Each structure stands twice: as structure tokens, then as C-alpha cells.
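Person: At home tonight, work slowly through the protein below, taking as long as you need, and write a paragraph about the fold.
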Amino acid sequence: MGTGDFTHPGWLAELKEKTDPDGNGLFKLKKEYRLDSPFAENDTRFLLTTEISNIYKRGGKVRKVHNVVMVSDFEEAEKINRRLVNLGGNLTSDGRPILGLDSRDLLEIVLDCNENNYFIPAHIWTPWFSMLGSKSGFDSLEECFADLSPHIHTIETGLSTDPPMNWLCSFLDGVTLVSNSDAHSPERLGRNANIFSTDLSYHAITEALRDGDPEKYLGTIDMFPQEGKYHYDGHRKCNVCWDPAETLRNNYLCPACKRPVTVGVMNRVIHLSDREDISERPNRLPFRSIIPLKEMLAEIAGVGVKSKKVEADYFQTVRKLGKELDILLEIPEEEIEAKTSKTLAEAIRRMRNREIYIQEGYDGEYGVISVFRPGETKNFEATGTLFQVQKPASPEKRALINFDLKGIQKLLLQKEQIENLVAEKSENYSVKNADEKTFAGLNPEQFAAVEQTEGPSLIIAGPGTGKTKTLTGKIAWLVGNHMARPEEILAITFTNKAADELRERLESLIKNKTKANEITVATFHAFGLSVLKEFYHRFQRSENFILIDEALRPDIIRSLFNIKSGEAKKLASEISEIKNGTKPETPSFEKYEEELQKLDAFDLDDLIAKPLQLFTENEDARALYHQRFSYIFVDEYQDTNHAQYQLLRQLAPYATSNLCVVGDANQSVYGFRGANATYIQRFAEDYPGAGVFRLTRSYRCSQTILSASANVLNHDSGFLEGLTEGVQVSISEQPTGAAEAEFIARQVVELVGGVSFFSIDSEVTKGDKNDTIGSLSDLAILCRTRNQFEAITKALRDHHVPYQEVGTIPFFREEPFRSFTGLLEAFSMKSYKQALPLFSLKKQTVTDSQFEWAQQKMLELKPVLFIEWVKKQFFSKETFKEAEWERFCILAGEMDSLRAFLDFLALGAGADMHNHRMEAVSLMTLHASKGLEFECVFIPGCEKGLLPYNLYKTEVDVDEEKRLLYVGMTRAKKLLYLTSARSRTLRGRRFQLPKSPFLQSIQQELIQQIKNKPHKKPVEKDNQLSLFD
């Protein structure tokens, strides 16, 4: 018996507590937990299994596939769990975890952990969540698992199919068919099962499944597939149930509601079938179809399956005859009749001979399998009385395939031929484009900006207007037309993620990786760091200087001036303003600078301030960089602060300098960091005669979203033009923050067409996704502050929705990673004497010999192995959360050296942690969302106090808050939800806030109000009982 759910930490802990390994890769219950069995000693063996839900995008479609994994011991289970946590998997939210991971990649992980682990695609035909499902699956095993397909040896048929249905598809000939079912209640164990004739061991079982040897694997026990709730096509609410032929005749449209019907498993099998005769299938292993004993007893008694009478009759029957499966399959009918009743014996005879009546399941409605016509059981019992009644005739024997398969396949072929003919005619009348050249995709405004290659230029680019495309196009134009050598070009961005995107685009455009890599693409801080690595001696630093991040600076100040944390943060802010050139120097500043020199360190502000000082004071250094970089490009120019602006003026001082900047004053949202939008506005003054290019076509937002967001700025939609008119912006007010979060979670589930069987069965969604939404990664929830995350993450977990959190500050800048990184920095210093102050700041006791030992290990080990060593030697196991530590290790594993890793930790931004490949909803702050785009965006907390934000302060830059909401709204391509709550709790304090005044600026014709509808709390049927209680 499979344990299920070994991926859930709580269940895995219980399995460890209550089972013992039997030495053969299986497990037994500890004696104190075993229940007495009336039949024999309770010696059940358990095999470690789990089912994983994979939701991901492949080939332009969202795929939702469930897979079963089997392992032989707890160590292997934990190994897989760690790998899944590394990838952002939330294993605690559900027994069946939902991962934004390709099934093929999950298979690779499972096999990488141990080649003896076993992988089975689950219930492969279920419409919504399976490998071959009609709603979100593939058309073949090979399409799903690609190069790893040969490692799939077994597939699970599911409740709605049986072996003969699968025999219709020749592409399944090479796999063994197994029949499993979820144990939603203990009495349903074994309703689908597999029969082995092997040793009782993990290896013997998996080998039998892998080989399909009929001497070792004897076939399956199946319920009649028509009982499965997705067997036929139809609409449950409209009471429409069709076989595949009827569906074809009605062109898949429900006659009642005119919507497409839910296509069932039988229809899907026929679509993919390539056989008319199932006997052609090699190695057809035996299978036996059953009806659970309780269902037959209920039919005989004319009462419900869960009635007390059926319960009593069931236990009386098994006491007389033995185990249920023996009753259904093995015990002679004469013995059954002698010990129970003629009616039950006849019922079992009919079941064994497939002489049954069937009402097929469809669209989530379970089918009904009967052995008697209504009222027939009374007549049947009467055949033994004084007044003889003719014995009722048995129903006809049910064929394995019970309809005109050949006829349906012919209809499908005709339909396909007609569709191909229509497509062919359309193609003949269409004009085929010639091969697109590198710059053919630019619109006239973009191309005009690209063509200007000499002198300064300003590109004003609103949201979605193709600024990156234009910027990279301009660089590629220079290189491709031999107007500039790649090494002469410097491109500056604000985040590592933006820099990476720029590099990828350039490599694609230039089509020469070597040339593309010769272009210097860096963030402001990374560029400044490269300057300091070249000119460190000018500032009395060594070649091995260290970087002091924003977290460590207040610690240094507190220790240096012997002041409290609050005062230290205030002084740190003042020092930052001095380095950015907006305040004069003070004695405290000079003392701090001396301390940094003693530490052989620069802080983050120095990465801009010191190069600026160098170029201002040293003509040779300035001339070197003028000669080195003839062309300079700057992205997000509106976000530059005073020091960055002055640095650019040193690098491009002349009216004829080849400086190209791209930006949008309406998206300036970093005033709290000293950013000043006036620099973009005065560009024409700094560079008279500069070319000014305005990109007016937004390829992201609909016109409705552009107009609504412009209203927030108290502008009209201005010069921006959307590709489509789009739908109205949705606005919803909820009673509480928790209700708002629940509203958002339900909308997410509905938009993607469900993330689990439960979301469909409980009618949170009908299973049909919004045509606009391709996958979970198409959705984002953008909050003004991280304090809003708590309620939203709870609602997402309640609905089993995968999500990834992204804040302005990355996780590795917070404790305990701050202390850990400080220790790594100390170990990277030249001497123990130099490192001692850092050890003191971090309150770490490290001896001289330990320091030398660490330095030796640092030389011997790769960065990821070294940080594991440091953790083991200097931190307790409980210090770090496992998931965050694994993420930290993954980052380290991507670095060539410890120094590169430490530089990344110092320079990385929160937005750099966003993984656009992860199949999960993005939950992030509005600031962190800058530069990203999504099909659908939710912005909760549209209240005065959050937008604009003034919960804990009196002064607020209202214009910047407007721009921040503008940025959030324009992340949305097609759907936008603005929500608010009449009351909410943040950091333990309850607030009652009015609606944001910004919403009042939006024209009424652009919005639709969504009223708060009360919803029934879904009740999950057949709540699973504890297996061991």
C-alpha cells in the first residue's frame, strides 16, 4: 500500500514515528499502532509514495499534470523534498504539492536523486490534471517527457479508464498499466489495485512494473471506468451527458447554455487512438472489473451506501465469507448463495460476467453501475416462493469497447480533413512575409531612435513601448554597421535582472556571442565597483578590499560612535546623503571614512562617490575612460540620483558626447533613494541639440489601462496609444483585509481554471480558464508594503495556489544571512588583525587558528562547499530556514569565486530574486515590480494610508505615490483589479481606512465595480481519515 504525501513534512514525520523499515525497501507499522484484523495478522507493507501536481507552461499552453513518485527509504524522500524546496516549492500547504515545474524536469530531479526512484504519470486521462488530459495535457508520452521518455515505464490508468481503453493507443504499448486510486476513506482501499507475484520488496515490485513480466505482474483490479466522474462528455449543471459520437454531432456545444461541453476521458482516448482492434496490443495483461461490495448491498436493500443497514450487512457478509476482494473475485457463487443470499450471489455473478447496467459519469458527476433493474431484486427473491415468478433476465454482457469505434474515428477523420482544407485555403490567400531582418520588427519611432548614432539622444519611453528593444537595437546597429567596436560601448542599468536581459537581447541581435560579451553591460554599482578594482590604490585600499553593505554600515557606526541603533541608522542616512552630494561633509563623516580605510573597505555609496571623485580630481583616469567608452547608454534615466547624474556628466561631458538615455518621468518612484526626475527633464539643457525621440505605441497595456493609469496622474492618456481597447478595470471593495485576500485568491483560481480537483469540485471554478491567462506566472499581486503579504499568502495557501514572494530587500540582506555574510567578508580579508573588527561587529568569537583554517578551506573548496563548511563550524542547525538556506546555496553555486558571490550579495536587489520561469503567482511590492509585466495584475490596499502611504509618517510625496500606483497599473497587459478593504490588520494593529483618493480620479466609464458576493465555504467530501488512528 502506498503511503502517499511523503513530500509533506508533517506526514513524513508521522511516517517516521509510526513505521519501521522491513529491510526490503518497504515499511511496517510499529506493533503499538497496529489494529487487530478478523482475517489474519495485520502485516501490511507500506511503500513510500507521493503525488505531485505540476503546473507549467510549455509550447504556448498551460500544462497541469499529476505525477506519482515512489522511493525506497526516508533518506531518498528527504533528498527529493530538499530539491523541490530549493525550487521554491511550498511543501507544507497541501499533501499533493503544487509546483511550477515541468514534468520532464521533475522526472530528471527524481532520477538525479537516485536512479532506483520510480516515476509514474498519474491518472493520465483526467481532463484537467494529467499527462494526456484534454484541458491541459499533451498528445503523447514523448511530447510530455521529451528526451527522458524512455525512463517512463509505467502509467496509471485512473478511475475513468480501464486497460482496454488504453490498448487503443499504440504509443502506450511500451508501458505497464497500473490501476491505483486515492484512499479518500479507508474503506475504499483496494477499489483499484495491482496484482504481483514477486518477493515482497521495493526492488521486486518496481522491477515487475518496469518489465511488465506477466509471470511477476499479473494485471489489475479496476472499477468499471464508466463510474469515473470524467468518463463521458457533458455539462453537469445542464444535465447533458453525451457519448463521443453525440458530442461530435453537436460540435462540442451544449444545447442548453451554448458553451463547450467538458470533454471526457473516452472522447480524449478516441482522439488519440490509432487502433480499431484492441487485440493488436502486445502483452495485454489480465484485468478484472469490480463493483464495491457495499454498492451492491445498497442496491439490493434499496438504501444508500452509507446507511446503517448497509454497514451491518457488509460486516455480516465479510464475517461469513472473508475478505471483500475474495468475495468479489474468487469465492464460488454457490458458496456465496449458501452463506448469504441468492440475490447477492447473482449480483456477483453478473458483475464477474460484465452483465451490468451503466449510467456513465461526466463533468465531475460520478457514474452509477448497477446489476439489477429497479425493483428487480424483489422479483428475484420471489423465484423461490410458493407462487413462482419467472426469473428476471440478466442484462446483456457489456463489451470492452461499447460503441461504434470505427464510426467515430471516421467522423473525426472527416472533421480533421475539413479543418485542414479550410486552413490550406486561408494559407493560399495569405501573403507570406520574407525572412525578417534584425531591425524589421522596429516601428518607425523606434527605428528613428536607432538610426541616430552620433551625439546625445533622449528616448522617452512609456510603459510597454519597447525601450529595451530600442536600446539594444541601437547598440546592435552600431556594432552591426561597424560604427563602434563592442568594447567601446558601455550600457548601464539599475538592476542585475535588467542587465541580464540586456545581455541576452544583445547576444540574440548581434548573433555573435563573443562580440556581445565584449560590450560592458552593468548596473551603476557594478560599473563603479569595476572602477575601484582598477584604482583601489588611489583610495588607500588593498586589492582585496571588502564591500560594506547597507545592513553592516549601521553596525560599524554604532560601534564607532558608541550610539544606539536608531541614532546609528539616522547617521548612516546622513552619511549616505553626503556621499550622494546633497549635504556637506561633517566631522562624523570624516571619522567614518577613516574607519572604512582601516577596515580596507568601501560601502555601497562609495561605488558611485569614489569613481566620481576619481574622475573629478584625476584627469588621466577621466581621459582613460573617455577613450575606453565612446558610446554610453543608460536605462531608467529618471531613477538617477545626484551622484549618478554627476558621474555620467564626467563620463560624457561634452555637448557632442555619444550618450543615449532612456526613461519616463512618470515612472520615477525612487525619491526615497535620492532619485530625481528633473535630470531627465533637463537633459536637453545639458546637451543642446540632443535628439529627442518619443515612443508612443504601448505593446503591453490596453488603451483602457493606459487611460485609467494616466487619470491617476491627473493626465489624459497623453501620447501613449494601446494596441487594443481592452476591458474595464475591475474595482472591488471588501469588508476586511482577509476578505480582500480571499477575493483575490478566488479570482486567481477562476482565471487559471483551477489548480486542483477540489477547486473544480467545490465550484470555486468551472475548470475553464480565462482566455487571457495562460498560466499562473501571468498573474501578479502588487502591494504597497510587505506587511500586506501575510493575509494574501494565507488565502493563496488555502486555495493551494503556488506563489513566489519578492520584496524590495532580498532575503539574504536580512538576518541571519546578514551575520553570515559579514563572517564570509571577514574570512576573505588578508589577515586576522584586519578581520578582527568585523568579528567583533558580528559578535562572533573566532580565534587566529580558526581564521587560518577558514582561509585554507576557502582556497580548497568551491564557494558553495565553503559556505556549507562555515555554516557547520560557526552556526547551529536551527539558525537558518531550510528553504532559504537552499536558495542561498543555489546562488553560491552559480558563482565562480567567493569574491564574486560576496559582490553579488552586496549589490543584488530584491527584484533580482524574481524567477519569471517559475509557474507561480508573483506576490511583490510595487517598487519591486518595476520593469516587469503580467497579463493580469491585482493591486490590493487601494486606501488612503497605503496609497498614498502615510500610516506611520506625516510627510508624504503624493506625486511620487501617484507615480508608484501608475507603475503598478501599467504592469498589467490585459486585466487589472484594484481592491480595497474597509478595515485591515497590519503588524497587529487594526486600521479603518477610506478608499484611496487616487481611485476617484479614474473616469467612471473605464471601470466596473465588482460587488462583494457571499460565498459558501467549500466542504470537501470524504475527508480523509488518519490512516494510523
